[in-house]
């Protein structure tokens, strides 16, 4: 393994600054790491981005650009994804795995995808379709505005589902920090299954109410069926956002990824 970088691909409505405690702690261990601000995620002031709402493919192209910069510098790359971020990260690996780049006589590339309670679509499936069959009472209340951007009309309910390991007032505080997200990104089908190209790790969150354990397990089963290989699964007692509720466990998990062959 050469010089290593980690790219964090946040979930819907999440900003890079929400990942700063993880980034700072992992960087202190000598690991190059950064969290990306996906095109499908709104602006820090809570506003939507100008122009058409970005698709999953727009997010994937953005991630791929960052991978390529690191790979062209000869660096191996691990993608750490959360929630929605699992879908565009899977798409972004096309032509950028270390194996693919070696076949082109190039150094660097993606060596692993590490999904943290993530949506991992099958080829041709949209990330929004993964949760479509959940009962209405188990889904996050969300509304799409006239410009195609998702927002959350009931932040109390959002907090109860996403931040259920926190006291109610703290969970509500975190829910208030979320920004708008492009609805188009959830409706875009996966056109490239990057998890077939590289080893896969998965941080399984046993008390996630947003992507329930049954959905997480279905994603893992699909990956293993499609690749014929076992995923490296770590299970923790966490809600949907372990980077906040189980910070030290997430830091240790990410650091261990850098040591995994």
From TrEMBL:
Q: Which domain of life is it from?
A: Eukaryota
Q: Which InterPro entries match?
A: AB_hydrolase_1, AB_hydrolase_fold, Sec-Metab_Biosynth_Hydrolase
Where is each AB hydrolase-1 domain found? 6-245
Protein name per UniProt: AB hydrolase-1 domain-containing protein
Species of provenance: Apiospora rasikravindrae
């Amino acid at each position: 393994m050469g010089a290593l970088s980690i790219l964090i691909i946040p979930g819907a409505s999440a900003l890079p600054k929400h990942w700063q405690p993880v980034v700072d702690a992992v960087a202190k261990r000598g690991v190059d790491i950064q969290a990306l601000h996906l095109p499908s995620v709104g602006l820090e002031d809570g506003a939507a981005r100008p122009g058409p709402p970005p698709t999953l493919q727009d997010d994937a192209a953005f991630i791929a650009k960052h991978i390529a910069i690191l790979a062209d510098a000869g660096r191996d790359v691990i993608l750490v994804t959360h929630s929605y971020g699992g879908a565009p990260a899977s798409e972004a690996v096309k032509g950028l795995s270390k194996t693919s780049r070696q076949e082109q006589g190039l150094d660097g590339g993606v060596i692993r995808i590490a999904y943290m309670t993530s949506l991992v679509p099958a080829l041709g499936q949209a990330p929004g379709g993964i949760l479509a069959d959940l009962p209405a009472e188990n889904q996050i209340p969300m509304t799409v505005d006239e410009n195609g951007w998702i927002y959350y009309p009931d932040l109390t309910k959002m907090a109860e589902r996403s931040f259920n390991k926190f006291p109610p007032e703290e969970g509500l505080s975190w829910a208030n920090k979320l920004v708008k997200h492009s609805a188009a990104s959830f409706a875009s089908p996966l056109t490239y299954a990057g998890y077939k190209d590289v080893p896969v790790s998965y941080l399984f969150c046993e008390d996630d109410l947003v992507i329930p354990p049954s959905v997480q397990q279905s994603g893992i089963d699909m990956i293993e069926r499609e690749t014929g290989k076992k995923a490296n699964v770590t299970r923790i007692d966490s809600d949907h956002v372990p980077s906040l509720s189980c910070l030290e466990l997430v830091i240790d998990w990410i650091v261990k990824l850098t040591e995994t062959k």
